[in-house]
Amino acid sequence: MASILKVDAMQGVTSAGDITITSEGGAATQSLQQGLAKVWVNLNGTGTIATRDSFSVASVVDNGTGAYTINFSNTMNNSNYSSVATGDGTGVASIIGVDTSLGRSGSPTTNCVISTKTTSASVDLSYIYLNIHGDLA
Fold it and tell me: In this model, does residue 101 exceed pLDDT 70?
């Protein structure tokens, strides 16, 4: 018989913030918190920009053609997080960049900037997707 576990909160036994998951084959373990996306967004980057859906996104800002700032709801612990973005626009071959350096002074812990371009110019895209993994503050 299958078991169903229903909980509102989980805490590790040794440390409240440390929950370890055993792999499907049982040979490896992974920290549950490390495997979760800390920020993600599905963004409409054309016209009046808007999120279609998101997690841990406080707001988005249109910085002009092909430039967007994603403000996080929760601060990252440090600047050593990983960010990946992709996108799609009707009939537009695009290049997506996530600029977390903002002047090369270290990644900000509260936001990131996405730029969308063709090979020759900045362009707004209909679909922009961002995922961020790392440690929360």
Answer: no
Domains in the chain, number: 1
Residues 40 and 85 sit within 8 Å (Cβ to Cβ):
no
Task: Classify residue 89: in a domain, yes or no.
Answer: yes
Res 103: pLDDT = 44
Token pair of 29 as six digits: 């373990």
Domain encompassing residue 93:
27-133
pLDDT at site 115: 87
Q: How far apart are CA 22 and CA 3, in angstroms?
A: 17
At 113 the three-state DSSP class reads strand
Q: Is the pLDDT of residue 105 over 60?
A: no
Maximum Cα–Cα distance across the chain: 60
Q: Is residue 40 part of a domain?
A: yes
